[in-house]
Write the structure tokens for this entry.
Amino acid sequence: MSRGLPPLYLNKYFKSQGDAWHLNPEVKAMVEFRSLNLVGQWGFMPPLDLVFIRNVMIYFDTETKKAILKKLRACMLPHGALFLGSAETTMNLDPAWTASQYGNATVYTIKAAA
Ligand SMILES: C[S@@+](CC[C@H](N)C(=O)[O-])C[C@H]1O[C@@H](n2cnc3c(N)ncnc32)[C@H](O)[C@@H]1O
């Protein structure tokens, strides 16, 4: 909340209650919340437009990171975008991804097949 969300969107989509911010029920109703263990078998995944796993891969060893990026790649739509933490990268893990700047963020997309 304190890292760049413009006040217009903060007030439009969230309500403050005590120390917490709550997403508006109308937006929540459009979202299906499920948990996923990134390690191991994923089972069925719908095609993904956007993936945010900021500061999640920092926990994993190189082989696990490679496996996660490979599984993500299989689920991403061609225009799909992956956001990682600022200290994370796909570099030296999976050459299929390419990085570009989107504002202050780095966005990873899958390179088009040659
Ligand atoms: C440092 S927090 C980052 C949280 C949030 N993405 C952020 O940037 O503020 C790391 C997150 O990784 C999640 N995590 C750790 N191991 C995981 C796994 N095997 N599968 C899915 N998520 C995992 C934890 O539940 C935790 O929410």
